[in-house]
């Protein structure tokens, strides 16, 4: 398998697109803006699902499923929500086709117009809160801690595989609580779940923060977020958790009787991450040779490739290789023995390097005679000769070392590209250099929008660990009490 990736330094965007396709993660489909997630890509997404789902259940959440279609009237009940999503909605107007008058092809049957048009869900708050109205009567019915794994449609005009597609996969949590304090605690808890997952599983360091009013989720009182930095110096929003207040409960009349017999509206949150994390994974760790996967997510953690001439040598190598497979599986390692005779070892080496397998083991007749194997690390592209005896027992710690090394490398990159500035000239220069720019802002939406117009940079977040500090806004010179993080972003 010959790799022919455009170098990152030459054209980062082109490198990304080529890598996603050549590494068999996804491809464009016959539907504009939609993608086919291929088996290798979907296996990585399944790993993300499993890790997140376990964390959701450990925090008391359960899974459910809600309809793909949402009555159009539901969207009109929460003004900010409809304003936020109106331009991205796909609308179903008819339910039947008929043969065209000329007998060629089909056309919409105008007699089959829906009484009420249906929105293909861009997010599920409205259909879920209409449902919750029937689930909640008393404080005994709370909290509701529900998550949904689903697909959603947002009619994006400019799309890129995983990062922005018209249809994508995600999870969306929707919870209902008796008090404001419980809802805020839930939103903050789920942000931390996302941050821990990003750092410990994806090996992506993130900044925890809250969005400005301009950048909040439509209908939220507060949006908590985690922000990551890609290798090209652009930021990527890796997850959000929203405190929705009572907006949706009031819009859909979801009330409960509290312990004192008083009827009140419930308090709400929603939170979600999507297949956009696949893009984050690619852009954080991969190199000009292909995909680099953190071992915790790699569908195959170790691949064993035999080196042989003729069936007799293959049979001899296979005895050792198959025992190594059994020993590795006993250690909980995901391993593959690739004894296909349709490809040469060099082709296989390239394939697994491109697909990001963390460890590769090569075994040949000479290795058998010496009781050794060749062990190659994907993250460093280094090779070493190691004894086959004891190898299986050492692999978990080797994988843990790779996992930590990827996180440390990404963290070092982020810290090297974290710029603190105090003037407009410094601000522009830092943005052009790439990375997060920590700067004072006067707190007004007008200034935030003006900076975006001038530089294409947005306020990624107000960090949760911010220290109050007197200063002046880099654009207006007006007083400021704290710094915020700006960046150009995906």
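^ Assign residues to that structure.
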């Amino acid at each position: 398998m010959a790799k022919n990736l455009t170098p990152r330094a030459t054209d980062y965007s082109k490198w990304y697109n080529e890598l996603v396709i050549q590494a068999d993660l996804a491809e464009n489909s016959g539907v504009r803006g939609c993608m086919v997630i291929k088996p290798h890509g979907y296996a990585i997404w399944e790993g993300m699902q499993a890790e997140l789902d376990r964390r959701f259940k450990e925090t008391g959440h359960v899974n459910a499923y809600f309809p793909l279609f949402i009555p159009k009237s539901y969207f009109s009940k929460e003004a900010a929500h409809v304003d936020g999503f109106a331009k991205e909605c796909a609308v179903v107007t008819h339910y039947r086709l008929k043969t065209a008058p000329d007998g060629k092809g089909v056309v919409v049957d105008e007699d089959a117009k829906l009484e009420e048009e249906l929105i293909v869900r861009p997010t599920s708050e409205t259909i879920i809160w209409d449902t919750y109205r029937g689930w909640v009567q008393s404080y005994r019915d709370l909290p509701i801690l529900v998550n949904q794994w689903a697909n959603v449609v947002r009619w994006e005009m400019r799309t890129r595989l995983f990062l922005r597609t018209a249809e994508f996969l995600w999870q969306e949590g929707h919870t209902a609580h008796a008090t404001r304090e419980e809802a805020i605690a839930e939103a903050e808890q789920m942000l931390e779940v996302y941050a821990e997952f990003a750092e410990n599983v994806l090996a992506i360091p993130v900044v925890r923060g809250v969005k400005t009013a301009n950048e909040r989720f439509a209908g939220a009182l507060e949006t908590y977020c985690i922000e990551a930095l890609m290798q090209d110096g652009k930021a990527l929003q890796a997850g959000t958790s929203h405190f929705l207040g009572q907006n949706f409960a009031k819009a859909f009349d979801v009330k409960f009787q509290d312990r004192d017999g008083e009827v009140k509206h419930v308090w709400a949150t929603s939170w979600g991450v999507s297949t956009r994390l696949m893009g984050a994974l690619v852009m954080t760790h991969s190199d000009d040779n292909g995909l680099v996967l953190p071992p915790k997510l790699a569908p195959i953690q170790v691949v064993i490739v035999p080196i042989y001439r003729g069936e007799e040598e293959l049979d001899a190598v296979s005895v050792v290789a198959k025992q190594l497979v059994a020993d590795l599986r006993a250690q909980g390692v995901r391993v593959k023995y690739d004894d296909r005779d349709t490809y040469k070892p060099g082709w296989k080496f390239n394939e697994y390097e491109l697909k990001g397998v963390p460890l590769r083991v090569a075994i040949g007749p000479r290795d058998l005679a010496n009781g050794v194997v060749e062990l190659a690390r994907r993250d460093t592209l280094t090779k070493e000769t190691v004894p086959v005896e004891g190898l299986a027992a050492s692999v978990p710690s080797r994988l843990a070392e790779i996992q930590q090394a990827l996180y440390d490398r990404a963290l070092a990159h982020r810290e090297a590209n974290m710029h603190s500035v105090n003037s407009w000239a410094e601000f522009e220069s830092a943005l052009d250099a790439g990375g997060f720019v920590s700067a004072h802002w006067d707190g007004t939406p007008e200034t935030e929008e003006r900076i975006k117009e001038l530089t294409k940079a947005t306020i990624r977040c107000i960090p949760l660990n911010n220290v109050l500090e007197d200063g002046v806004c880099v654009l207006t010179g007006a007083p400021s009490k704290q710094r915020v993080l700006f960046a150009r972003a995906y």
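The longest strand covers residues 167-177.
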